[in-house]
TrEMBL record:
Keyword Secreted tagged: no
Source organism phylogeny: Eukaryota, Viridiplantae, Streptophyta, Embryophyta, Tracheophyta
InterPro entries xrefs: DEAD/DEAH_box_helicase_dom, Helicase_ATP-bd, Helicase_C-like, P-loop_NTPase, RNA_helicase_DEAD_Q_motif
Short name of one Pfam family: Helicase_C
Region span, Disordered: 1-35
Top-level division of the source organism's lineage: Eukaryota
Name of the protein this chain belongs to: RNA helicase
């Protein structure tokens, strides 16, 4: 267990009347399993099923009598309890506090719930607060679902952690905290960010003098948002308690629970919370859930729960026009980006270019900079301060072109992004001949946020790229239109016009 300094930012929307937290509840012995997971043995992040029925991720039957789905919604709701849920067509129907409603209307500028919000929010805020597995399109308003859910469950007078949100990257954690603080500005609810502190440029004396977790005071912030490793460190040192935890959220849940993702840390956190707060509501949100993650979710979510699912053929974003462009070599990719996409797309909004590796990111950055383009690049090898600065500059509109690895493929919300370029198609790390269809969907979801227009250009070089693109099309049951001549100005202009951008 590493006792290392952590970057912990405290953000308080406003001063709230507070009382001291009552003595913590007695911790359950380690051998006592939470009731919800009574059929699973979880040890060191591994779960085994003992006669527990699988979740119904296959054919989804909707109980029309419960009136869960808004009109024309392709989101299928499955409820395993008798709790009646009615879609919320206004935020007032959710019985939220006046302070939260003010945050929604005045700060967030919302008018009414989106489709996913209309269905999911009643499930989140209505007793008995059942667990929820929620899948929906990128840019459909999932973040509001769980941030509003967390804020609505917190008692502002109790100075103790009551809501916990786990995110795969520091960028997503910071973004979610900003949304929560803006939405909860008038509530007085306190929040804290838990991400790894950047020691890249710190002096040896600074590192020695940083207070280790063991010497920190217990956390009293009511909402905690952070990355799994940092959260687990604080929980391990008994500085982040879960005795009063009411709601536990996993954003980008498929990555958080994937074997190659953060499954071990996520499972440890879930187990720690369940041992002292067995009635804590668990929310799993993502745009994608592959089969292996579905199998694992079936092992950890027990008893009555709710599901919101979208068939994979319905996930491809309608507002985003997708194109494939065949080019003869890597240099041609750069020329297409410069002379076609960025040239004709200038003034249409911001552009994000996805690459497969850090080396590709650096190479492309140098090439575009040499050609006179002002762009920034982000990847995992950069220090946290540099990453934060690059994201802030892009979100503030100071830079128009951002080159990124898949660090920003998930959850990154910037409404001014109208163009996404896949310089490299996403492939599985374990088998580069197979596409990562989930990552592809997340990438293209950076454009066309909340129904806005957007275009995606997939640059294909050689038979291998064409095969990967073909497999992606087959996976989602959709044909991606081709820009037949990569040298043609008119074809690229027509593509942007067809996407509604010209």
């Amino acid at each position: 267990m590493a006792d290392t300094p952590t970057e912990v930012d405290t953000s308080t929307a406003s001063t709230a009347t507070s009382i001291e937290a009552p003595p913590p509840q007695e911790t359950k012995p380690a051998t006592e399993l939470p009731k919800r997971w009574a059929g699973a043995d979880i040890e060191d992040g591994v779960a085994e099923v003992k006669g527990v029925a699988e979740l119904d991720f296959g054919s989804l039957a909707v109980d029309e009598k419960k009136n869960v789905n808004p009109e024309n919604s392709n989101i299928k709701a499955v409820c395993s309890s008798d709790t009646p849920y009615t879609s919320a067509y206004t935020f007032e129907e959710l019985n939220l506090s006046p302070e939260l409603l003010k945050g929604l209307y005045v700060e967030m500028k919302f008018e009414k719930p989106s489709k996913i919000q209309a269905i999911s929010l009643p499930m989140i805020v209505t007793p008995p607060h059942l667990d929820l597995i929620a899948q929906a399109h990128n840019g459909s308003g999932k973040t509001t679902c769980f941030t509003l859910g967390m804020l609505s469950r917190v008692d502002p007078k109790l100075q103790a952690p009551q809501a916990l949100c786990i995110c795969p990257t520091r960028e997503l954690a910071i973004q979610n905290l900003q949304v929560l603080n803006k939405m909860g500005k008038h509530t007085g609810i306190t929040s804290q960010l838990f991400v790894q502190k950047d020691q890249t440029h710190a002096s040896a004396s600074t590192r020695r003098n940083s207070n280790p977790i063991s010497k920190q005071l217990p956390i009293t912030a009511q909402v905690v948002i952070g990355t799994p490793g940092t959260i687990w460190n604080w929980m391990s040192w008994k500085k982040l308690g879960a005795s009063y935890m009411k709601i536990l959220v996993f954003d980008e849940a498929d990555q958080m629970l994937a074997q190659e993702g953060f499954r071990d840390a996520s499972t440890r956190i879930m187990r720690a919370v369940e041992r002292v707060s067995s009635h804590c509501q668990v929310l799993l949100f993502s745009a994608t859930f592959n089969d292996s993650v579905k199998d694992f979710v079936a092992k950890i979510v027990k008893g009555n729960h709710n599901q919101l699912l979208v068939k994979k053929e319905d996930l491809s974003l309608e507002s985003v026009k997708q194109y494939k462009v065949k080019v003869p070599d890597e240099l041609s990719k750069i020329m297409v980006i410069k002379e076609k996409i960025l040239e004709f797309g200038e003034g249409l909004g911001q552009t994000i270019i996805f690459v497969r590796t850090k080396n590709s990111a650096s190479m492309l950055h140098k090439s575009l900079a040499h050609l006179g383009y002002d762009c920034t690049t982000i990847h995992g090898n950069l220090g946290n301060d540099d990453r934060d600065k690059i994201v802030k500059e892009f979100k503030d509109g100071l830079t128009q072109v951002l080159i990124s690895t898949d660090l920003l493929s998930r959850g990154f919300d910037q409404q001014q992004i109208n163009l996404v370029i896949n310089y490299d198609l996403p492939v599985k790390y374990t088998d580069p001949t197979e596409p990562d269809c989930e990552v592809y969907l997340h990438r293209i979801g950076r454009a066309g946020r909340f129904g806005r227009k957007g275009a995606v250009f997939n640059l294909l070089c050689g038979d291998a790229d064409e095969m990967i693109m073909s497999k992606i099309q087959s996976h989602y049951g959709a044909e991606v239109e081709e820009v037949a001549n990569w040298r043609s100005d008119e074809e690229f202009k027509a593509a942007l016009k067809s996407a509604g951008l010209l």
